[in-house]
Design brief:
The structure is a single chain. The chain has helices at 8-22, 29-43, 66-76, 97-110, 125-128, 133-141, 145-154, 181-185, 198-204, 226-236, 297-300; strands at 49-52, 56-59, 84-86, 115-117, 160-163, 167-170, 206-207, 213-215, 222-224, 240-243, 252-255, 260-263, 277-282, 288-293. Helix 3 (66-76) links the parallel strand 2 and strand 3. With 313 residues, it is an alpha/beta fold. Helix content is 34%, strand content 17%. The strands form three sheets. The chain has a six-stranded mixed beta sheet with strand order 1-5-6-10-12-11. A five-stranded mixed beta sheet has the order 4-3-2-13-14, covered by helices on one side.
Length: 313
């Protein structure tokens, strides 16, 4: 994690912004532009696989469900007293993508050594033009500038994290193009997510009950079997893989006989799926605690969008 001390004046500015965001109020366009610029300076110093120290709380997809994000902070604690690793997919689907992603970015800028955020498949220009974030920015700001600034920032997000050199944390999964963390660190990541290749695979692939590599029904990435997960863990000296990306009804799911676990942190996804959500808490000895939670009162009153694109994860 990066160590950076903010000036008293800048810390006060960030605290005001965090206070405004905590009330689910958007920042001004100029504030988002400046905040994104500061965050970009931090992210470009991080490797593709960024290193994370324990203790830490791992958060899966939040998808614009702002009130549920705030519930996570109530459950696990606020930064800087709690360290967080966010596994991507901050935007789309939910009605508060702007507030959700800006909250995480503002926390990253305020507490650089306490917050790690990586890229999900929805941190993409193409995907956000289909699943809600682009339209939300237009509605809340009257132009596409905030969307452009934030999607430019997404290009700088790391592709994965590794906790204490023992737990590999991509947004989604593995790639047949690479076997090691060193190979992942060689990827040129500062661009839009490609339609294929290892960067795409890390953000799109899913574990499967079948062995080996398979064609993904998502139309991007691959499916990977237990043999693939176990081989990757063995080669890299890892205990297991922590990933998000996939709706699981109980919010938490072990697969591949303990080689992979899915953490999904958006309860009642899309305001209609009825799923429980979870976060994964590690202490300084990597002892783990799964915390489950359901949607907040604020979200329980939300109506699902009348229309939704067929892609549903």
């Amino acid at each position: 994690m990066l160590a950076k001390t903010l000036s008293q004046q800048e810390a006060q500015v960030r605290d005001v912004q965090l206070g405004q965001l905590s009330e689910c109020k958007v920042l001004t366009e100029d504030e988002v532009v400046e905040l994104a610029s500061k965050c970009k300076e931090l992210l470009q110093q991080e490797t593709n696989v960024t290193h994370v120290r324990a203790p830490v709380v791992v958060v899966g997809d939040t998808h614009g469900q702002f009130h549920d994000l705030m519930e996570i902070f109530k459950i696990a604690g606020n930064a800087p007293d709690t360290n967080y690793l966010f596994l991507g997919d901050y935007v789309d689907r939910g009605y508060y993508s702007v507030e959700t992603v800006c909250m995480v970015i503002a926390l990253k800028v305020r507490y650089p050594s306490r917050i790690v955020m990586i890229r999900g498949n929805h941190e993409s220009r193409q995907i956000t033009q289909v699943y809600g974030f682009y339209e939300e920015c237009l509605r809340k700001y009257g132009s596409a500038k905030v969307w452009q600034v934030l999607t430019d920032l997404f290009d700088y997000l790391p592709l994965a994290a590794v906790i204490e050199n023992q737990l590999f944390c991509p947004h989604a999964g593995l790639s047949p193009s690479m076997d090691t963390l060193d190979q992942i660190n060689q990827i040129h990541r500062f661009e839009e997510v490609p339609h294929e290749g290892p960067m795409c695979d890390l953000l799109w692939s899913d574990p499967d009950d079948r062995m080996g590599w398979g064609i993904s029904p998502r139309g991007a990435g691959y499916t990977y079997g237990q043999d693939i997960s176990e081989h990757f863990n063995h080669v890299n000296g890892l205990k297991f893989i922590i990933r998000a990306h996939q709706l699981v009804s109980e919010g938490f799911l072990w697969q591949h006989e303990g080689a992979v676990v899915t953490v999904f942190s958006a309860p009642n996804y899309c305001y209609r799926c009825g799923n429980v959500a979870s976060i994964l808490i590690f202490d300084d000895k990597l002892e783990r605690d799964v915390r489950y939670f359901t949607e907040t009162v604020e979200n329980s009153g939300m109506m699902a969008p009348r229309t939704a694109a067929r892609y549903f994860w």
